[in-house]
Design goal:
By secondary structure, this protein is mainly alpha-helical. It contains 6 helices and 3 strands; from the N terminus they run H-H-E-H-H-E-E-H-H. The protein has a 3-stranded antiparallel beta sheet with strand order 1-3-2. The protein is globular and about 55 Å long. This is HTH marR-type domain-containing protein. InterPro entries: HTH_MarR-typ, MarR/SlyA-like.
Length: 160
């Protein structure tokens, strides 16, 4: 993976507008983080990265269920693929699935206690993986912007 810490910033001679350049840098950094996170997610939770994203959406408000259509919309995934992922998570005992009252086609998904427990146990390792990867793949100005979004993010570059 490339080190993006020395990526040129959007200057007056760039072909890209500042917003597009910033978006591309963020995509590069998040792609690198995603690659690093895949192994940790598999080791700690024994789920795929896509299944992990579903768990994260549900964990944002662990007492509430989300409709499958909303999960598909938030993740930008086809509903058929999401159906398979939810089935895998349900088989692993990590989510429950139930029909929405008054809507015969609607299905809600919620975390189980097992999933809550696993996420709590794994959260420190997952957060550390994200911090370390962001530190390696973001330049100083990107780290500064990230610190504004995540105050606990350590914006120091990793030793080489």
């Amino acid at each position: 993976m490339a080190d993006h810490s020395d990526c040129p910033s959007a200057s007056g001679d760039s072909l890209l507008p500042v917003e597009l350049h910033a978006w591309m840098l963020m995509l590069a950094a998040t792609g690198a983080v995603e690659q690093e996170l895949r192994g940790v997610v598999k080791d700690r939770l024994d789920v795929s990265h896509d299944e992990f994203l579903v768990l994260c959406l549900l964990a944002a408000d662990p007492g509430e269920a989300l409709r499958m259509t909303r999960i598909a919309e938030l993740l930008g995934r086809p509903k058929t693929r999401l159906t398979y992922q939810i089935a895998c998570l349900q088989h692993a005992g990590l989510v429950t699935r139930r029909s929405v009252c008054g809507d015969k086609r609607g299905v809600e998904v919620a975390l189980t206690e097992k999933a809550r427990s696993l996420l709590k146990e794994a959260s420190a390792a997952l957060a550390e993986t994200v911090k370390e990867a962001l530190t390696r793949f973001m330049g100083p100005s990107q780290r500064e912007a990230m610190c504004a979004l995540m105050p606990d993010f350590i914006g120091e570059p990793a030793p080489e």
